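2 proteins. here.
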Amino acid sequence: MKRTSHFLIIVGIILTVTLGLTIDSSTTWALDSSLYELTDESSYLEGCYDPCDCLLMLYPTLQGTFLLTSISQGEDVSLFEVMEVDWQFIQEDETILVTGSGLYQIDSEQHRLTLDLLVGNAPVRQFDSGFVPLQSAFPGISIAIALNGFYCYDYVFDITALPAPVELSISSWGSLKSIFR
């Protein structure tokens, strides 16, 4: 029995140091940061919103990942840092890369995503959702961010994302075998 508890303590220390994993009071593993993947429902839109009248182009090929890291967890509001945005979409047979970072805020009724994004060769610009009602239960995220506040000609990322699966496996001889997403 002592050998097993020593093993668990050693594995906990290794995971804490190398992966930023922590052990909560119920001894379950919790990630300080979570890798998120965009789902097939994510898209990039460009064109006119009210009150303007022009064609709205939909690019449904948006895919990629980002890292969500907890900054503060309060009773009313939780704040997360969004890092390592790594997205891409296809526009007129060209793959457009999107990188950046920002903040995600959530409470029991609403949320807000603000990202500074480098889209293709354009300069870094800030995309913001404003505070909007929750559309899905956290940890899922479903939110649209716009460059110009969803007004007239705008550039919009419609984001639906879920935490990427994490798998830890222990070999039959009791050591950590593999860690992958």
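next one coming up
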Amino acid sequence: MNSRGAMHHWLSCPGSFGPTPQDQRRRPLGYLSSPFQVRSLNLLSLAILLLDQIISTILISCPSSSSYMLIKDVSLLQAGQLIKGRDILIEGNRITKIGRGLKDEDKEETIDGRGKLAIAGLVNSHTHLAMTLLRGYADDMLLKPWLEEKIWPLEARLTPEDVYWGAKLGCLELIRFGITCFNDMYFFMDETARATKEMGLRAFLAPVVFDMRPELLAGTEPFLKRWQGDELIRPAVGPHAAYTCSEETLLQARDLAERYNTLIHIHLCETKEEVDGFTLTKGKSPVEYLDGLNMLNPRLVAVHCVWLSQEDAHLLATRGGNVADCTVSNLKLCSGIAPLNYLLDAGVNVCLGTDGPSSNNNLNLFEEMKVTAIVQKNAYHSPAAFSAEQVWRIATEGAYKTFGLDMGLHEGALADLALIDLRKPWLCPQSNLVSHLVYSMTGEVNTTIVNGKVLMRDGFIPGEAEILEKAQERFLRLTSSD
């Protein structure tokens, strides 16, 4: 859902955020047998089968907090240098020790780290995950016909079931690129939350809010209550943009975020038309407008921020707002290039996102890092600007700060990490691994771990074939009238 899109959809789609009949058929990741069916079973057999299903679901979705995992003989990056032969001990959902020759007991799950690099998990700081179903559907078009002729009509047909399978498809892609957490804004957000939980990823999820559908704001607080306190899902508040939400709506969103201690996820200053419109009608920039509503604060995740003045950057820095840059999507839609030098020089915390898969068209943060570095170098006419190390810090440390995540390869950190196979041609020779991660990393990671649980090991994700099949079916259903 591009920030200029989906309003038409919101005027015409069902507004329910509640459970759907399809929810009863959904199975957690790793449950590969066919859907449960009752035939000629007696009551005892039925009870045993039901109990077995319940126990299996609990074991899959709620790993024991006392579980151990040991990654043996893996390489790490310290101050940009490759350090080999380290072991990483994980207990429950935390890294408890990093060192050499850590004890390998029978009760531990052991992963062979030889020839692999361990990195802390990446965070996709802005996306619309279920728009995987719209990937490649409408490309290389001018913005207005792209929205009005393609995106809006298709979004108007989306159902909760579509969003569920689109989100699962997005989760597959995130896992394959070592992204352990994402920040999402879309509709039917309970569907994305359930899909994310089943896939085992961490997420900040904000139901989108538009003025044209007042019930969307009314549905935000129940969503916050339903998911508050969840170990993996952090609910957030998602006013779409300052130009699609009235002052009253923005103030209510602000108050909800304060009351429930959540982030505010909003598109801001994405296009020149948006900024010019505010200047003409309100005599101030969108950043100044939000500041007047006391919305510029550390809770704010302001997405895009392409058309900013130095004064805007200073305001964001002074108030502690965070900026999520989406370089590839902005370039593809010809929205412009975010002035990252203004932001970083002013002291604004910056992170990276991909935006939705219909305007990027992937969820690959490695690609996002490379394009961001290259574009910023050209914008400021200096190949020395925005080094690989700087962009890597934006993508990692900047995101961890934005979302308050205790992540990194250190004792006590969340056990969210990825293993990268160093025996790939694009990572050879092993000269400057940070440079390789930013400029050369063209493939997938080998293994992804979230919250101390392996989601992908040696490139294998349980249940992937079914998700791909279902996503294709949902796309064909959406486009059947074309």
